[in-house]
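fold description:
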Amino acid sequence: MGLSGIFGYLKSLEAKNSLHVAIGYILVAYFFHAVQITFYKSGHFTVVPQSLFLRSFFSLIFIFMFQYKENYYPKNRTRYLVQSQTLGAFGSLFYFYGINFISLSEGAILFATNSIWSQLMVSLMNRERITKSRFINSIICIIGIVLVVNPTLTVDDPVMHIVGCLCILICSVIQSLGFIIMKKIGPEVPSTITTSYFHIMIIFTSSLQQQYIGRFEYFDGYYKYIAGFSIFTMLGQLIQFRAQTLVTYDKLCNYTYSQTLYIIIIDYVIFNKILSLNGMIGGSLILFGVFKQLAEDKKSRG
C-alpha cells in the first residue's frame, strides 16, 4: 500500500468516526512534539529566532516539494489561517525562549493550562457568565502555577526561572486563542497548508526578532539538532492540525496532556531531571483543575 492508499484509508476512517481518529492523531502528534522539544533542548540553542527560522525554512521546503499543487489561498479561509498561525508563531517564540531556563517537565505542565485559557476565552467570546465552578478551577490552576514557578527552588538563576515560566504561560494563552480560531479553517483545507502558514509566520516573526538580537551561533552537530527539530515539528503539526480541523478543540483537550507524560519520562531518562516536590504538587493541582473543568463542561453539554 502506497502513500496515496494510506491517506485514502485514513480519510475513510475520518468519515466513519472523526472523533476517534482525531484522538489517535493527537496522541501521535504530541509524541512527535515531545521528541522535537527534546532535540531543541539537547542542542542548547541560545539564539532562539535563528533556530526557529532554520526549522521553518527546511520544513517549508520539504512540504512544498510534495504539496506545491495545493491551493494556498482557500476561499474564505485565508484570514483564519493567517490569524491562527500568527498567534501560533508568536507563542512559539515565547515558548522556546522560556524553555531554555526551566526543565521540560515544568514547561509541559505550565503549557497544560491552555485548556483553562481556551474555556475562559470561549466564555468571554460568547458573553457567557463565568460560573463559580469555573472560577474555582481557575484558582486551583493558578495556585499550581505559583508552586511550579516558585522562585525559592534551588535553581542556577531564580529570576530567569520565573521568566522562563512566565514565557510558557504567555505562549499557552496566545496559542489557546489560535486553537479557537483554527477550528474555523475546517477539514476541507489540508493540514499541510495550515502547517505551511505556521512556518511562514515563524519565518516572518523570527526574522524581525533576529534583527533585534543581531548575532548568530554555530557549534558541532548544530544541523543534526536542527534536522531532528524540523522533522518532528513538521510531523507533529501536520497530524495535530488535521485533528483540530476534524473536531472542536474541547473534544481533544483531555488527550493533549499525553505530551506532559511523554515529556516527564523523556526529562528523566535523557536529562536525568525530575520535578521537585513543589513542582509535583503544583503540576497535580494544575492537571486536577483542568480535568475537573473539562469533566464539568462535558457534563453540562449532556
